[in-house]
Amino acid sequence: MTSGSETLQNAPDGRPLDPLEALRHERRVSAALREVGVALGTTFDLDDLLELILAKLTELVEADRATLYLLDEGKKELVSRLVVGDKVRSIRMKLGHGIAGIVAKTGKSIRIRDAYNDPQFERDWDVLTGYRTKSMLAAPLKNHLGRTIGVIQVLNKQDGHEFTSEDEAILSALSTQAAVAIDNSRLFLSLIQKNKQLLDTTEQLERKLQDLSLLLELERRTARATTLEELASAVLGQCAQACEARGAGLLLSEEESGDLVEYAFDTKNPESLQRIGVKSREGFLGASMAQADILSIDQADTDPRWNANVEGTFGFAVTSVLAVPLDGESAPLGAIGLFSHEGSGSFDDADVSLMRLVSANVSTAVRLFNANRSRERSERLTSIGRLLSQVIHDFKTPMTVISGYTQLMADADDRRTRHEYSEEILKQFDVLTAMQREVLEFARGERTVFVRKVYLNKFFADVRRQLALEVSGLPIELSFQVDTKLVARFDEGRLARVVHNLARNAIEAMGEAGGVLTIGARLDGADLLIFVEDTGPGIPKAIEGQLFQSFVTMGKAGGTGLGLAIVKKIVDEHRGTVSVTSSSAGARFEIRLPQGGNEDGAAAAKKASGTRKSGRPAKGSHVKSPAR
Ligand SMILES: Nc1ncnc2c1ncn2[C@@H]1O[C@H](COP(=O)(O)OP(=O)(O)OP(=O)(O)O)[C@@H](O)[C@H]1O
Ligand SMILES: [Mg+2]
Questions:
Q1: Residue nearest atom 1 of ligand 1, based on CA coordinates
Q2: Could you tell me the distance, in angstroms and rounded to a whole number, from the CA of residue 505 to the centre of ligand 2?
Q3: 597: Cβ–Cβ under 8 A, 6 or more apart, which residues?
Q4: pTM
Q5: Measuring CA to CA, which of 18, 161, 276, 453 is 20 to 30 A from 135?
Q6: Is the dihedral of CA 554, 556, 560, 563 positive or negative?
Q7: d(Cα 284, Cα 282) in Å, to the nearest integer?
Q8: Model confidence pLDDT, tens digit, residues 348-403
Q9: In this structure, which ligand is nearest to the CA of 560?
């Protein structure tokens, strides 16, 4: 056995080559190397390349056959990749065993004159095939990092000669080229694979992004929906578009009646959402809801669950169906579905996973929607109760006035006076009607503060007449300090309630002991200032800090503690403020109502009031505020 690469130009029989023959040989070698070099740059098929290399090799070194092995690093085996001159296609050899195995392990070439004389040669293969191996030449395939990736082996030089060092040099050159080809191809394949992985990842990411933006959009739209119809059409339109469905449906039970309703959406008619009354288990959505399971059906028209009342009323023939139940607390609260895939004809796994996400989203939205609705209803009922108690509280004023005038009427002889008194009584009925209207408007979800120009002169004249009835029989003096030329802007009926509540508290505080009740009104900057002052004992210290809260009362047998809470609420509705100062010499409540600086404002009204006849009805405006 010899190894290495002497480049002696000898003929196969050992005699030196004659120069002409040597030159021809050189030419053939360099032509073959060139051909392989060109093929390396132009042929991408690895098998073609390797076949060319092996064919050239067998021809140049005049071998009987040649084998190219690749190293399987994992299994530590050499596996034949290509064989020239033999029909056998697959040979496996352990690393370190047999000639090729030793070459792969050591990374060095081996040249043998007679294999059977070499102890490292394993005859198994010859025994199996009947071939008689004699001379051998094997060289490692090394990649650009110098790692052995395989072995090329040639057997039996023709005419019983042995392989020369010249042959070894040729094998070494061609194995380098084969290694380059293999390396390139592996690099190329791994690049393609990486590229494919990248494409797959990008595709998955894009899909996830689409799903996410769909969910985000759904959340935005469902949050804005004020009715179930709005919620349904927002959800269904989005889903149908995302999954290429011709139509979509949402099955829900109505909150108050508990009846099942299916909202059916048709992409060709997106404006008109159909509302179909459905019985339990009817149609595909009914079945999905009843079974609490996903249904994915390709031939819906022949399916026993197809229902004329539901699917039959769609404006198109329902072919494929994907129905997903909406999770409820114990049982599904409905179902959502897609009808007739417009592309492939059936819904795929991606559609199923998207609809699962959507159904979770929609069931949360529906539950939230129902919870909001029932909270709003119960809040409104509570507020109606509160408003009613306030209105009933303030019924006291018109009732007192009516009862006062009724008594006066009973004693009045002359008809004209009785007529005057009856007018006053009728006015109080208007006050009562207005208060009743306030409650009813609120129950309907409206809330109106009727702000308009009010002539203070007339407003306080009415207050004075009514209070006179209330203090009659008590040692209480009424004093008014009102800028009577002033015209201000506020809700007359409600401000009257404010003044009466404050005045009644003052009268109650002074009681039998008596005193002076002073009521005043004037402009203070841009505000209308109204004050109610008494000479009573002042506010009890214990409740000073919570005076304007409901049910805070002290020192009164029949007090409910609502009077000042009503005052505060009405002042708030006018965007004004209320404050109190108190001492043992009495209490003073001050109300400030902003009048704004516009032409309709108090300042302008004051200017105009000198030239205007009083009593003319003033133009009003409604300030709407949301019902609480
Ligand atoms: N001018 C005042 N002088 C002294 N204390 C007052 C005066 N105004 C209010 N208060 C105190 O504030 C409490 C709360 O008044 P508020 O009008 O809210 O309820 P109330 O008068 O007790 O009952 P209601 O008005 O509902 O019949 C009164 O109970 C009283 O103790
Ligand atoms: Mg009171």
A1: 506
A2: 5
A3: 526, 603
A4: 0.50
A5: 18
A6: negative
A7: 7
A8: 998 999 999 899 989 888 888 888 888 887 887 788 788 888 888 888 889 988 99
A9: 1
